[in-house]
């Protein structure tokens, strides 16, 4: 009987050791991930700095599209098909896209998701023509923390004017400006 009690104690200690090891490993993984996210966030171009040019393939077909360095201001949008908030933002983005184009802004949804997933995500919208698929390296350069629904406003000079989450103060200001474009065009018609 004594050997059985010793064996049970040893097994209990081993089980506790494995549980502690697992808990510490998971904690270490979270710490490393947060450090990695902080390092990626530090690699984001600061507001006022140039945004490197990149090329993407339009979801709607056609040849590659180069963004940056062409003197056209741009709004880059980062949405994820797995993000419920992103899906909720689609109607507002669809409303703003033609207004932005009328104001001389290029507006692009930028993604690295597979085309079939993007088409399914955008199927009830007219946004496929405003969507670019880019290589992972370009996506990481533009959105290193993989935030969504987020945006970058790029000036005519190719510098970063603003970045943030769709719905924040800068976004609401942009939306208001686009509504003014709509009102002005309706008044002149």
The overall pLDDT, averaged over residues, is 85
Structural class: alpha/beta
**Distance between the first and last residues' Cα:** 97 Å
Shape: elongated
Number of helices: 5
Indicate the proportion of strand residues: 15-25%
What value does the Rg take, in angstroms? 24 Å
Sheet having the most strands = 7 strands, mixed
Number of strands: 7
Order of helices and strands: HEEEHEHEHEEH
Percentage of residues in helical conformation: 40-55%
Strand order of the largest sheet: 2-1-5-4-3-6-7
Unreliable segments of 5+ consecutive residues: none
Considering the chains and any ligands shown, give keywords for the structure.
single chain; 189 residues; alpha/beta; elongated
Characterization of this structure:
The protein contains 5 helices and 7 strands. With about 190 residues, it is α/β, with parallel strands linked by helices. Strand 3 (about 75-80), helix 2 and strand 4 form a beta-alpha-beta unit. Helix 2 packs across helix 5. The longest helix is centred in the first third of the chain and has 41 residues, at about 1-40. The protein is elongated. The model has no long low-confidence stretch (mean pLDDT about 85).
What's the structural blueprint in terms of helices and strands?
Layout: H1 2-42, E1 54-58, E2 65-67, E3 74-78, H2 84-102, E4 106-111, H3 115-122, E5 131-133, H4 136-142, E6 150-154, E7 160-165, H5 169-188
Parallel strand pairs: 3-4, 4-5
Antiparallel strand pairs: 1-2, 1-5, 3-6, 6-7
């Amino acid at each position: 009987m004594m050997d059985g009690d010793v064996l049970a104690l040893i097994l209990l200690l081993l089980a506790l050791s494995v549980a502690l090891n697992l808990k510490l490993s998971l904690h270490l993984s979270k710490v490393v991930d947060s450090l990695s996210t902080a390092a990626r966030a530090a690699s984001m171009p600061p507001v006022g700095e140039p945004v490197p040019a990149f090329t993407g393939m339009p979801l709607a077909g056609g040849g590659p599209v180069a963004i940056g360095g062409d003197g056209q201001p741009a709004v880059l949008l980062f949405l994820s098909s797995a993000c419920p908030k992103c899906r909720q933002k689609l109607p507002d983005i669809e409303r703003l896209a033609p207004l932005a184009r009328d104001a001389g802004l290029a507006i692009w949804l930028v993604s690295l998701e597979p085309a079939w997933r993007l088409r399914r995500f955008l199927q009830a919208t007219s946004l496929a023509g405003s969507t670019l698929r880019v290589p992972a390296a370009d996506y990481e350069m533009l959105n290193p923390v993989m935030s969504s629904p987020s945006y970058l406003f790029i000036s005519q000079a190719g510098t970063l004017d603003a970045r943030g989450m769709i719905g924040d103060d800068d976004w609401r200001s942009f939306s208001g400006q686009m509504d003014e474009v709509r009102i002005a065009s309706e008044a002149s018609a």
